[in-house]
Amino acid sequence: MGKRKKQAKVLRIFRKVHRTTGALLFIFFFFISVSGLILGWKKNSNGYILPKTQQGTTAELKEWLPIDSLHSIACNTLHNKVSPELSLEIDRIDLRKEKGSMKFIFVDSFYEVQLDGATGNVLSIGQRKSDFLENVHDGSIVDDYFGTDGYIKLVYTTVMGVSLLIFTITGFWLWYGPKRMRKASKA
Prior knowledge:
5 helices; 187 residues; 4 strands; single chain; alpha+beta; 2 domains; four-stranded antiparallel sheet; 57% helix
């Protein structure tokens, strides 16, 4: 088989792999791209996707209330201002020393309560839509639904990462291969 025929065969194989991968994983690529695009804008959404970090009164940690006191305020605020039905399970606590504030982020419905670290005053109550989008983006939402302890996310991110690598390689070759064949045929 001649060199040109071999190159054409490789191109056909790459085109088929590229097309098949795209067709099989279209819906996943769609969710990843849309959620990734929105997540890229989260801090520039005027608080719609991610509540803005509010300014407290002081960055001096020695003037702050104890964490257990701030935690109690955040839990009472969630139940009194949002819903007494929500779980008080904490996902994480985000301390913003330079802003003088602390965010208590709850597992249930992605709510956060921002408090002034020194006074305990409520600075903000908001829903973190970005946390939900991150779970869609990386497949954690399926793990949470089925309770599979991260295994679905691991498989999902591996398949999608390898697929993106395959798309990159085959896409490059589908662009470069014909150029190479034309150059070879002129020589």
